[in-house]
């Protein structure tokens, strides 16, 4: 075999090798891969899913709560606290390839019962400072992803001089209501809490709770001595000085 033939043969082998290598790269680059990340939105339980799949043409989402979606980047609102296994199935319609990716999404959805926005994550409404005045947004503190009500009582007076209320709740005389909330202060002090009417004759059922500088969760059962569709939850804070912080307020009627 002469030298020219040897060179041509080697060149052919080299080109064939490059072609195979390029084919492998093409196959790898065209490989179907399913994947996603997600963002927690400000609205409770709302998740925006970001599809990171490669070489896919259609998508099927299973959110683990019995609901599904075929959107590429769906926005999902979970209504219950829990651990949800969310599965994305990606398909390449041309090749018939299918790939799936699953991960667990932890959801916490605050349930206030008869109270709306008891965790103060949706702003100030429908809470009032006093019976009629909307809460100044400056009385809401946000830190470490949590928002709560906070007011500094500079001078002691009547308990109702500094009041946080949630009106518009229908309550029935003789029914028992469980009021729960988190509260703490920068000093050891007390406050008056309970349920009652939003106007004259101001009938109510209240108790006094002692606060410390540590966060405490309180649970109080109260029997309504009134019937009214515009009843309220009451926090009377004015009897002692110190900063009072309140969060995660719930009210539920007991069987």
Automatic annotation (TrEMBL):
Record organism: Flavobacterium orientale
Keyword Signal: yes
Keyword rRNA processing part of the UniProt annotation: no
Keyword set, alphabetical order: Hydrolase, Signal
Cited Pfam families: CBM_4_9, PKD_4
Residue spans crossing the bilayer: none
CDD domains: PKD (cd00146)
Record's protein name: PKD domain-containing protein
GO molecular function: hydrolase activity, acting on glycosyl bonds
Residue span(s) of domain PKD: 53-107
Gene3D superfamilies cross-referenced by the UniProt entry: Galactose-binding domain-like, Immunoglobulins
Secretion signal span: 1-21
């Amino acid at each position: 075999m002469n030298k020219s033939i040897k060179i041509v043969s080697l060149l052919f082998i080299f080109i064939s090798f490059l072609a195979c290598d390029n084919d492998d790269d093409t196959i790898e680059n065209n490989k179907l891969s399913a994947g996603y990340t997600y963002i927690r939105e400000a609205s409770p339980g709302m998740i925006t899913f970001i599809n990171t799949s490669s070489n896919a043409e259609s998508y099927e989402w299973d959110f683990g709560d019995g609901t599904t979606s075929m959107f590429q980047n769906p926005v999902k609102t979970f209504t219950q606290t829990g651990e949800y296994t969310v599965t994305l199935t990606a398909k390449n319609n041309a090749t018939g390839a299918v790939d799936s990716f699953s991960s667990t999404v932890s959801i916490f959805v605050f349930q206030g019962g008869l109270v709306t926005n008891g965790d103060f994550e949706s702003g100030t409404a429908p809470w009032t400072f006093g019976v009629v005045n909307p809460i100044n947004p400056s009385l809401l503190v946000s830190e470490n992803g949590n928002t709560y009500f906070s007011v500094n009582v500079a001078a002691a007076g009547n308990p109702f001089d500094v009041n946080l209320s949630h009106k518009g709740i229908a309550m029935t005389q003789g029914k028992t209501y469980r009021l729960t909330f988190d509260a703490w202060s920068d000093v050891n002090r007390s406050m008056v809490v309970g349920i009652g009417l939003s106007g004259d004759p101001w009938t109510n059922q209240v108790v006094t709770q002692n606060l410390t500088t540590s966060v405490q969760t309180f649970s109080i059962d109260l029997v309504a001595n009134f019937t009214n569709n515009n009843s309220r939850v009451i926090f009377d804070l004015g009897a002692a000085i110190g900063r009072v912080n309140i969060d995660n307020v719930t009210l539920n009627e007991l069987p």
